[in-house]
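INFO worker-7 received task bundle
INFO bundle size: 2
INFO processing item 0
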Amino acid sequence: MSRLDHRTAVITGAAIGIGRATAKKMASLGANLVLVDMDEEGLATCKLECEAFGVNALTFTADVSDETRANEIIDEAAKRFDHIDILVNNAGVWRRSMPFIETTSDMWKKYIDVNLLGTMYFTHAALQYMIPAESGRIINVASVAGVYGNANMVDYSTTKAAVIGFTKALAKELAPKRILVNAVSPGSVSSHQDVEEPSELSFLGRTGTHTENANLICFLAGDESTYIAGQNIQIDGCRKKM
């Protein structure tokens, strides 16, 4: 996998799971990091893990659905590191399963605010720096729920489908400017760091791991993926469509 030396990567939802694994992998590849999450304690732990690789890491406690805060974070990061090279929009909410008829509009709006608008806010802010530089990578973490639709997760599925559409449309605008935009759609992922768990949802018969997802994200952020744009890449162990 190609090195990311001297590049600045912003990762939202960096305190746990795929975001944390991505931060550690990018740190191992030499990237300086801007870590964003609501979990202050988790951010502090992630920062220490990343700095062990000899890189610099800034942390920002924030709700990605706050547009003003998103702009402040990107501006401060650019001031510190001079450039924004990589944005990983990973922050999201999903931990609820219930029939759509039992959900409320307040629930829908929370999913829209975080999963979709949070992605758009950070992207819009980062582009203020990527477009003048005519360089950048944006990787949006979507979901197989946005591809197939999951029963009892209608609002989540809706927002992840929107993230995929956002990715494909924006990629067409930005490819001529040498900014590559892609999405990754995880299937079932283990709730434990780098532990494979049995799963009937994939033909491989197991969940994916955080690091497997991080490896794909880092590939898309590096120099080995220079002809990939506008794609939604499923990382799902050959998902059963259910």
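INFO item 0 finished
INFO processing item 1
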Amino acid sequence: MSLESPVIGYTLGDQAGIGPEIIRKALPQLDPRAEYRQMGGAVQATPGQPTLETAHAALEHLELAAQALKEGTIDAVVTAPVCKEGLHAVGFPFPGQTEFFAARLGVENFAMCLTGRHLTVGLGTIHVALHDVPQLLDTAELVRIGTLLADFLQRTGTAAPRLAVAALNPHAGENGAFGREEIDIITPAVQELQRTLPGCSISGPCVPDCVYRDAVEGLYDAVLCPYHDQGLIPLKLVDFDNAVNATLGLPRLRVSPDHGTAFGIAGKGLAREFSTVRAFELALKSVR
């Protein structure tokens, strides 16, 4: 392997879903100077009808991909959508692929990032009730995720990342009138990121109803946001067809299209491959 001829692995996901179709459509559009290596083989699958066999195959392919990443026989991996219900039925103990790859590669410092052609977001909290977000926000955690996000941007071609840290409250709290999270939690995180990442530009707390527009227009390279929907609503508004899920913190990049198995349209030729193409492009950028 070399930077001129990287090896990008890929999985087919749950093969009763759209994974095989979007991979098949994506591969002819990719840079021919790289090698694209399938992890595992095809199984008998009826489109739209997942089985224990398709779940077992999906899990086996994830294990093969993780082992190849660990051994360095591939430079990055693109994983097609899996069915979590099916994986859990065959003994998969993780919430998702993010946690699986982190565990298999022995990485404890990791996070999830969603990135499209116009907007990239890191999440301070993920799948929790909105009511719980203020109690879960933590300065050290924002610094940790912000550091991983800056590293991801550098690994994918942004030499001096410009990172915005979004406020939690309207108008960034109005100096405490609408809450103290900006004063007590977010501002200290911004200051620590500025101190520890001198090669980056760190701004914040940024007014949340403007910062995503500013990022889309090119003022920032990524936004670190305090909760799930604040970041994903604008991302899916501007990048619905090309958003990619990336696992931050791994020694080699794992990315996947930001959509599910779509069993309802599997086998009908309707699945769009744009997010998968973007995932492969990002995998290549991380190597080069």
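INFO item 1 finished
INFO post-check item 1: The chain has a mean pLDDT of 96.
INFO post-check item 1: The longest strand covers residues 201-206.
INFO worker-7 idle
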